[in-house]
Design a protein that fits this description.
This protein is an alpha/beta fold. Helix content is about 55%, strand content about 15%. Strand 1, helix 1 and strand 2 form a beta-alpha-beta unit. InterPro entries: Asp/Glu/hydantoin_racemase (IPR015942), Asp/Glu_race (IPR001920), Asp/Glu_racemase_AS_2 (IPR033134), Asp_race (IPR004380). This is Putative racemase YgeA. Pfam families: Asp_Glu_race.
Amino acid sequence: MKTIGLIGGMSWESSAEYYRIINQRVKHKLGDLHSCKCIMYSVDFGEIETLQHKGEWEKLTRMMIDVAKNLEKAGAELIVICTNTMHMMADEVQSNIGIPLLHIADATAEQITAKKLKKVGLLGTRFTMAQNFYKGRIQENYGVEVIVPTEAEQGIIHDVIYNELVQGIVKTESKKKYIKIIQGLVSRGAEGIILGCTEIPMLIKKEDIEVELFDTTAIHATFAVDSALSE
């Protein structure tokens, strides 16, 4: 089993889910007494969130590179960034380390193509929905069309993430808003929905919608274990 390096804390709520899912997967694959070999570097999300909303992406990139290097020095054999948004700098991080970085969009896209879907909707932070680092990667590398909510709906999704979900707050009224937005994406032809923020699975479950649901937290964590156990 390779040692997984986890860049966590963005938020700690979703990082805890990564740790739980990863260890459950190892137990399932290897047996009851087995657990994951991993190292987590958990950042202060208060600092990260401030820099994100100030647009200080170069500073954030340097931070992520430094964290990844520290994990590599500590013995990590592959890197997992436990959040969707910070994959904005995944290529820069990968080019500065000598071990693989497992991209969350690649893991998710493999699941989408396995189900032979051609058009999916994407929910996430405003950064993830509006910029091209995530949806563009899926469209260009996997041939899957990715659509996003309207600008106003993106604002609703973003605000719920930062004002509620990252603080562990789950509201029924917010769930209703998300479901309505998802229904709008389905009416535009989405055959599945990517929960492209690792906190959204706290709010939206498989039984809430009629199309395929792609929980990126579970997908990424499972992919990390399978990669760590591969030859």
